[in-house]
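Fig. S4 source data, part A: sequence.
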Amino acid sequence: MLLAVDVGNTHITLGIYKGKDQICHWRISTNRKKTADEYGILLRQLFAIENHSLDAINAVALSSVVPPLTASMVKMSLDCFGTKPLVIGPGVKTGMPIRFDNPKEVGADRIVNGVAAFHKYGGPVIVVDLGTATTFDVISAKGEYLGGAIAPGVGISTDALFSYAAKLPRVELVKPPHVIGKTTVACMQSGIMYGLLGQVEGIVARMKKELQSQVTVVATGGFAFLFEGEQGVVDHVDPFLTLEGLRLIHEMNKEL
């Protein structure tokens, strides 16, 4: 079985795959100070809770946008499973041409998302990854990575509002029933949530105009759930798109 690991700035997402089927997944906090041993202990606990054996894992695929943790995850894989992970980066076969001025600048998670989105939904497709940053990635009808956009994530925006406005409290990230809020909390929730929806709608609309074609829009990442039920904003909410991309890239590279 395969363990797919996506290391983001805020969360680490993990999933176990048996063939094409995901049989288990977890989302844990990213902590750059934790060592490979500490993450190994946590992983053993997670496996034990779900009654999975470490011995069943014979391959690991890893994408990471946190360089200090990449080496820790490689060591954890060697210690826990006795296998060196496939680390997504230059030289790894993805089947996706990157039409970017400097392909090495593109984060591994963005390429992985693109591979999965094109495989599942075809192209052209726009992937909106709602995590620490909100990223927009565009894949052509031919399966080429064309580029995208990066904006501050909803969590960053919320923290900034709380930190720099003395009288504003921290608020729960839920969508209020009305845009016009009647309390400070409701006003903040409206601004945050409907502001995010408007941002995504606006950027996606401009991207579609540049592409001049029908485009599928997929939302993923830790805050993708905020788009559930939002008709006309995104076509699919796929919170584990990155893990699926890791599985696909692992399949492409396992015979190499």
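Fig. S4 source data, part B ends here. The mean pLDDT is 91.
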